[in-house]
User: Fold this.
Amino acid sequence: MIQEEPRLSAQEMIERLESSLSKRRRIRAVTALLAGLVGAVFVTSLWATEPGPLPGGTHTAFAVLTGFCLAWACYGGWVLTRRAPLFATERVIAAWIAVAASVTATALVTAIAVIRGTGPLPPLAVGALFVAASLTLAWRAHTRRAHLLHLKRTLGG
Amino acid sequence: MTDELLVVNAQLGDRAAVAELVRRWRLPVWTYARRMLDAERADDVSQEIWLAVVRGLPRLRDPARFRPWLFIIARRSVTDRLRAEYARAEAARPPEEPVADDPAEALVERAEVMAGLAGLPVLEREILVLFYLEDLTVQECAQICGIPAGTVKSRLSRARRLLRAHLTEKGYRP
Assistant:
């Protein structure tokens, strides 16, 4: 019987998996997700705090911009859940970037609301939700990484 | 280094550990795919399996269960390609038979399995490949195929009988 072999060598197989393992792809996806979310919150808050009635065209422009930001956020989320999920250490880094982005966006949007005289409470409430969500992600990421590091030590690695 | 430690390192983000897992498990995965499919499809499915493994690895909860998890993914990809064949086999599945302990029957040789596999129906072929060629336990086979351990045993028993009959028909003598 002729001994059959796979067409691809181990090295060739690893090379074909490069794009799914690429750190650059993960960074791009995290950037798209966070920038999309922060952008959507920012544009929506500008839209909501506009003093006086807006012409129809301006409403459309705000809606299109918000949709554009959400589309990028969805793309980033899709890549991170379906195409290139984050490994434990990357999840920790991404979660802290999300915390920083949430805090910055909350401060920015609250400042705009105060300048425009619409009151800081609504943006602070929405911002607090984002910060709480990102802190929860950071806590879960740290727990998971700590569990894996403990397992690694137990296994003698 | 054990598979479990490699998986933990890979889940922490060590790309070299992922590469080592591919090196270590490339042939067993391909062998499973090849015994279930023709050569060309086996190569395509192997790539598909590894892509799904790399994408799913960060979410694997228990690194000690890597082997059955890997073959669950492999089976899913193979089942996708053989959907019609599996549907036919499931429809024509005979009632579950009681399994009598028969040590002689358990002594099916690897070479015998290899020689007769191609002529067997898909469900029996699959269980023989997993149990004899991949050295998985009955429990692991049950988990991979999504059936109770008792069904694995009866399916194995039927598969061995079919294999013997098929090999005898071909004039094969152990």
The mean pLDDT of chain B is 86.
